[in-house]
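Wait, mind explaining this?

_____
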Amino acid sequence: MDYAAEFENGLSYQDFLEQFATEEQTRRWNDFHNSVQLTDNQQTLLKSFVREMKVIVMAGAWCGDCVNQCPIFNQFALCNDKIQVRYVDRDAATELAEELKICGGARVPAVVFLSEDGQFCGRAGDRTLSKYRNMASHIQGASCPTGLANDEDLTAAVVQDWLNEFERIQWMLRTSLRLRQLHGD
C-alpha cells in the first residue's frame, strides 16, 4: 500500500465534510469540534512537536465514532502545523478500506501515521481504550461492570488517548536516527 499517495489524495477536514457530509452531518461534526477543549498542558505538548507527521484518517461522515473522534484530530492539527491530517472516505477508498480492516471489518476511524517523507510509522483506531472501557461498562453480564469507565469524562479521556498516540509517533519521529541525521539534530 502506498500510504504516501493515499495521504496526498486525502482531503482537509473542511474539504472532507464538504464533499462527503450532509448538512446535518456537518453540523454534528462541527458541534463536536466546538465542544473539544484541549487543556493548556495538551496544547503545550502539541506545540512542542518539531517533526512533521502526516496522518491519514479513513472515516465516514455518517459514522458516530468518527463524529466523536475526527474533530479531535483537527484540533490537534490547529495547534501545530507540523501535524498534517488528511481525511479519506471509507466507501470511496475501497482498497485502503480493505488494507485497514480492524477485527475483520472496514471500521472507522482508522488512522495511519507517516513520517514527513511518507514512511509508515503506525496505525490506530477504531476506538480508544477509554471508549472501549466505557462500552464494556454498559454491557450486561457477569464480566461487567469493570469500574474502569466514567461517562462524564469520556470525551476528555478519548482526547487524551488520541494525544498519547500522536505523542508516541512524534517521539518515534524525533528519536529516529534517520531523521536526526537528515535534520542534523
In short: The first strand starts at residue 53 and ends at 59. The first helix runs from residue 3 to 9. The mean pLDDT is 92. Strands lie at 53-59, 83-89, 110-114, 120-125.
